[in-house]
Specification:
Blueprint lengths: L9 E4 L4 H12 L5 E2 L11 H11 L3 E4 L7 H6 L1 H21 L4 E5 L28 H21 L2 E7 L1 E3 L12 H15 L3 E5 L5 E2 L1 E3 H13 L2 H4 L10 E4 L5 E2 H12 L4 E5 L8 E2 L4 H5 L8 H13 L7
Parallel strand pairs: 1-2, 1-3, 3-4, 4-5, 5-10, 6-9, 7-12, 8-13
Antiparallel strand pairs: 8-11
Helix pairs in contact: 1-7, 2-4, 4-5, 6-9, 6-11, 9-11
Bound molecules: NADP nicotinamide-adenine-dinucleotide phosphate.
């Protein structure tokens, strides 16, 4: 089995995004000097022939697949076809071509929305495909489930070591702060920052603020991915078996009410106005917390406390380190 070295060619697909940029930072800090990247203008990952040609030319040893079409509730609701097809194309092209060109280790990224809407909390990996999905992002979730299945099939049939990480809600530098397509934490940062700049007396936020969510700083996810890539094969052997998919939840193991999160963001940003809640807007699932005991058993845990992470994300926002869409 391929053992990662500092000179390994590691292809980070989607390096301009929230997760991909964190992965580049992590690999650079850890001394990996031959990281491979390709801008979308150079390599459209939905185009199978281009992906094949790129892999043939660059021959990565390891792949971390961070490229995907990603977005919040509004973006998913308005483009379900693209959320299904773009993600299927990107992951099929990259994962299958990686296999065809002999890449032994690959990290695929899914998301907690692959789990049933009514999954028991905290959500364990074994709840996959046990009940219906949340309809608002079902096309995206089904694409991600197909990616997990492909990794699992390649491991069984061709003894690959492809695993799928299921992160909770992520945030950090290079996040998407566009109010139409962003996730809750960057949206809160931007709304409150702008409200403070305008000296608004109040900010109106979606829903009741009562749902609970879990948030992971993006560099911690990158740390988890590298931690797994560096584990000796024998320590992860139980992940690559017939019995269950090679799936690992990555989170902090702690959730917080959106209302309390909004208070933290307001303090970080320095917004002193009132927070009003538009209760006519949907809340989504009441609680979403991942069971991270598998990663804990492997000896990994998240390192960045939420307050510190929000401060770092706001610093990045102020410095213009944001996703340009
Ligand atoms: N953000 C979260 O809260 C979260 C939570 C759980 C899981 N995840 C998962 O983590 C992974 C990364 O998410 P992210 O938040 O980092 O997404 P992101 O910030 O939107 O980044 C997506 C990356 O994919 C690239 N990309 C998209 N379509 C492409 C194409 N056709 N060809 C080439 N590159 C393409 C983008 O390139 P451009 O810069 O050119 O657009 C960008 O580099 C995804 O699989 C996502 O499902 C994210």
């Amino acid at each position: 089995m391929y053992a990662l070295e500092r000179a390994s060619r590691i292809y980070v697909a989607g390096h301009t995004g929230l997760v991909g940029s964190a992965m580049l930072r992590k690999l650079s800090q850890a001394g990996f000097s031959r990281t491979l990247t390709a801008a979308r203008s150079e390599l459209d990952l939905t185009d199978r022939n281009s992906v094949k040609a790129w892999f043939a030319a660059h021959r990565p040893h390891v792949v971390v697949l961070c490229a995907a079409r990603v977005g919040g509730i509004l973006a998913n609701a308005s483009a379900p076809v693209e959320f299904l097809l773009d993600n299927l194309h990107i992951q099929n092209n990259v994962i299958h071509t990686a296999h065809e060109t002999g890449v032994e280790q690959l990290v695929f990224l899914g998301s907690s929305c692959i789990y049933p809407r009514e999954a028991n909390q905290p959500i364990g990996e074994d709840s996959l495909l046990t009940a219906p999905l949340e309809p608002t992002n079902r096309p995206y979730a089904i694409a991600k489930i197909a990616g997990i299945e492909l990794c699992w099939a390649l491991n069984r049939q061709h003894q690959r070591r492809y695993f799928a990480l299921m992160p909770t809600n992520l945030y950090g530098p290079e996040d998407n702060f566009d109010l139409f397509s962003s996730h809750v934490l960057p949206a809160l940062i931007r709304k409150m920052h702008e409200a403070r700049e305008r000296a608004d007396a109040s900010v109106t936020l979606w829903g009741t603020g009562e749902p609970k969510r879990e948030f992971l700083y993006s560099d911690d996810l990158a740390d988890a991915a590298l931690y797994l890539l560096e584990r000796p094969a024998a320590r992860l052997a139980h992940l690559f078996c017939e019995a269950h998919p090679p799936l690992l939840n990555v989170g902090t193991g702690q959730d917080i009410r959106i209302r309390e999160l909004a208070d933290k963001v307001a303090r970080t940003v320095g917004f002193e106005g009132a927070l009003q809640w538009d209760t006519g807007k949907p809340d989504g699932t009441a609680r979403k917390l991942l069971d991270v005991s598998r990663m804990s058993a492997l000896g990994w845990q998240a390192k960045t406390p939420l307050d510190q992470g929000i401060a770092l994300a706001y610093e990045a926002f102020l410095a213009g380190r944001v996703r340009r869409l």
